[in-house]
Records
---
Amino acid sequence: MITTTVLLVAAARPALADATAFVGLNTTPASRPVTGFAIGLSLLIVGFEFEYAYTADDAGNNAPSLKTGMGNVLLQTPTAIFRVQPYATAGAGVYREELGPHEETDVGMNLGGGAKITLVGPLKLRVDYRVFKLAGGALNSPAHRIYAGLTLGF
């Protein structure tokens, strides 16, 4: 019993954290730039992250600005396969949408997936696609976002 416990503790991989800065497009209802960051903690297969993103408005296409702050759970492969670590994610949080006099702040949920691709050492390229279901009086729900970013593990 003690030997088994010692072997399990010795073989346990420490939790890994990472930070991502990203740019991309929110494609709903018109393509607009999105920027943001995420900070996360991975425990082998399950990971947790907080992310913030800002999408600019486009009044000419009746597309509101969108700010999101989401807490997410990731399910991922325990290690990279040929330098690629795919993941699926789901989360919830708050959003704020603005366009002219319209302002809406409420809760939202997101679902998506992507991959972290090892570049060199702790540096990875992250690509991601998300669908956001926005509650309340959101002008555009669901909202779709695609992005790429640089992730630094520590």
---
Amino acid sequence: MREFGHSSSGLAGSLLIAHPNLLDPNFKHTVLFIPVNNDDDGSFGLIINRPTGKKVKDFLPDQDLRDLAHVPVFIGGPVGNDQITFAAFEWKKDEDLVVCQTHLGIDEAWKLKDNETTSIRAFVGYAGWSKGQLESELDDKSWLVQRPDLDMMDLEKCSGLWQAIMKEQGPWFRLLASAPDDPSNN
């Protein structure tokens, strides 16, 4: 288990929001939580707005999952998509930040599931960037960065999170976000 939160330097603890012009199918219209960003190892993130529509029991039918059987599974990213992992997102109201524990096993996730300020999610895959790669993509304006808010914790709002964030960015982003992929099909 690794625990990460917002740091005063770097992107750890931030949301990474795909710019409307980012057309890579792995990341188009995605919102990622970035638990790890450092100069030595690069960056690690989880897409938080791509639910698979399945529960953990659908992926691990032979496991003793207890209450975790009904935890929703998200596509976490294009890397390591042959394994499922749990993450716990805890809202720290006093500090106005999200702390994320990743790489949780079933027992670790089960112990955290009843905390009312924690959202347990399961992920297939993750997003990873080598040293300096994400910073280069930020320089190219592929991503917007913002602090997480309480809405990212709401499982009911997660699939529409990208659109909601785009509406908050102003009219130009709202227009780009609602435009068809191929304007000639309009």
---
Amino acid sequence: MNEKIADILKTTISGLNFVDKITGLIQVGYLTKGEVQKKVGKEFAYDELNTIKVPMSLGYTDCTTSKPGSYDLYFPDKAYKSVIFFEDQGVSLVDQHRARIDYVATLRLVCWFNRKKIEPDTTVLKRNDLIALLNNAILDVQANTSDFNRLYVEFKGEAVHSEDIYSKYDLDVNMYQYMMYPYELFALDYDIFYTVTKICPDDIELNPDVC
């Protein structure tokens, strides 16, 4: 369910003019150095690591063929205005009623920005402006789908601003320069409340006359 919620929030902020590379939920992918090099088109220095932990879009494995499917990597990249993705922080049961179940999902929005490429004037569009524009779009989301309803979002706060945001992934040593000015990196945490309606099976009709 968190994947579907992340897709809704992704769609909501995709239209902002400083957003270009964005996806919904990502997973921690495990690639060889050769696979990373082939995907990004250049070689990175990963010391003695043979397997690289990468922020990878979902859909890596094709369930029908068990072969790698389409995916992308979400490392900071100066070729883009922004690199944005969601991380799954879990889901909890809030309340259970006769006809519905209430849940709260927690998602982290990881945002990296290249201020040199952001329009309009980067001296006007500052860090707090970026956060405010993202929050304004996300906190306005209310959705009802075939899977859930009564969805609404609460902002929990900003995570620590540092390279620790990427700590679960293996960064090439040269990537750490993208954590400093003129680049921006921050993570925003959200609680998303929603309701799932219980679906009861049709009453079973017993007909003793039928053998």
